[in-house]
Amino acid sequence: MQTISAGTRAPDFDLPDQDGRMHDLSTLLRRGPVALFFYPIAGSSGCTKEARHFRDRAAEFGHVGAHRVGISVDDIATQERFAASEGLDYPVLSDLHGRVATAYGVRRKYFTPVKRATFVIDEDQQIADVFLSEISMTAHADRALQSLRRLVNA
Questions:
Q1: In whole angstroms, what is the distance from residue 104 CA to residue 129 CA?
Q2: Start-to-end C-alpha separation, the chain
């Protein structure tokens, strides 16, 4: 499956977060650009490190007017436990059937349910940057911030 690339329109979605509240991309983008990151398994060591790094850089994301949103194929209850245990201050969405992961080209059949991928999406719903790395957990938030700073200063 080919991951969608920068310069393409981001597929819209409507998914529940850890509290069961629905979020759609179009509405999120009305408040500013979005750093959308897919993570394989809520609570795993790598995903925890990645999610914490997005949490810990909250002020920097706020400074560029961007919102952080995580997505995995875990169910709502698992997302709720994950968000609570890690003090996540942003929505983690449940893509239980993998439809959104498929639309973004990050769904897998083997290894883990989804690729670890981050998409920076501008307010026009265009993908400004894509970052894929299975081993560099903190690089996802760092790369998203670099891209967002370029977007804001453009």
A1: 13
A2: 32
